[in-house]
Specification:
The chain is α+β, with helices and mostly antiparallel strands and 296 residues long. It has 3 domains: 71 residues, no CATH class; 59 residues, no CATH class; 107 residues, Sandwich (Immunoglobulin-like). Helix content is 26%, strand content 30%. Strands 1, 2, 3, 4 and 5 form a 5-stranded mixed β-sheet that branches. The protein has a 4-stranded mixed β-sheet with strand order 6-15-7-10, with no helix packed on it. A 4-stranded antiparallel β-sheet has the order 9-8-11-12. The longest helix has 21 residues. The protein is elongated.
């Protein structure tokens, strides 16, 4: 008797086998990862990992440890990843975590340059059988903001000299981490500058805030509060380290009056509203308010 069922029973059996195998692998005995690298974590688990690193940095101020731990995540841009997560934390109602992340991003953004020390000594070559004057070594040290260079020169005297010597030493020293500027305890911030900025490169009306300590250094992690008739918003300086460690901004909506103040005291700045600027060709665009606070 001839079997006319064709290959369909084989295809049906294969499909059922695949479905049963997938269901077993996903539901009955799924794959469980243990002792995996942080770079393989899911995005939300990476966020928790960064938050723990930022909290540890707040506790011990060890920038070297924080950098080593962040490198395990293999982020393409560590500063951007920290700043973006700080903004997400702030929008999610966790200002303490946002502040810790912002301070770590600001600290990483001001890593000091490597100090290189170069020493060079050279004497004129002479015949080994012919007495020649012994050079007296004169040292010249030149120090700049990025490197220190030591040059040794030779001055002839009355004794025999060795063959020519040429030596270059290039030791590299790992600098200690630079401490992140923090507000001077007890010193209030005072508004030192308020002006309207017309910048055609801005896409929206902004309130731009800059904070400096008594020594004129930018201060990250300062909480800023903006009020208007329908609500309130909080943000922190230092979340955009590429624009400055003491910088923060807030997007205004046209037709609304805003009042700004710093969370730790300071005078409120009322009457801030979006205003228009005009180019020489008559084209209109939104301007910004610049508010600079200094500790006195």
């Amino acid at each position: 008797m001839r079997d006319n069922r064709g290959p369909w029973y084989l295809i049906t059996g294969l499909a059922l086998g695949v479905l049963i195998g997938v269901a077993y692998a996903w539901l009955v005995q799924p794959v469980r990862y243990t002792n995996t690298m942080p770079a393989s974590l899911r995005s939300d688990f990476k966020d928790r990992y960064r938050a723990v690193i930022a909290a540890a940095y707040q506790a011990n101020a060890s920038l070297t440890r924080a950098k080593a731990r962040l490198e395990l995540l293999a982020d393409p841009d560590v500063y951007r990843a920290l700043a973006e997560q700080a903004q997400r934390s702030l929008a999610g109602g966790d200002p303490q975590e946002a502040r810790a992340l912002g301070q770590l991003a600001a600290a990483l953004g001001q890593a000091p340059p490597t100090l290189a020390l170069t020493a060079q000594a050279q004497a004129t070559s002479q015949s080994p059988l012919t007495p020649s004057p012994t050079p007296a070594i004169t040292a010249t040290l030149v120090i700049t903001a990025s490197q220190a260079q030591l040059t040794l020169s030779a001055t002839p005297e009355s004794q025999a000299s060795p063959p020519a010597v040429l030596a270059t030493l290039l030791p590299t020293f790992t600098p200690l981490p630079t401490r992140t500027p923090t507000p001077t305890p007890g010193a209030p911030f005072v508004l030192s500058k308020q002006e309207q900025i017309c910048n055609p490169e801005l896409d929206e009306p902004l309130i731009q805030v800059q904070t400096f300590d008594a020594a004129g250094q930018p201060v990250p992690g300062v909480e800023v509060i903006v009020n208007w008739e329908a609500g309130e918003d909080h943000f922190f300086t230092g979340l955009k380290p590429e624009l400055g460690l003491g910088y923060a901004d807030f997007s205004m909506a046209p037709g609304i009056l805003y009042t700004l103040r710093l969370a730790k005291g300071g005078q409120p700045i009322p009457g801030l509203a979006a205003s228009e600027c005009e180019t020489q060709g008559g084209e209109r665009y939104w301007g910004a308010w610049l508010l600079v606070f200094e500790q006195r």
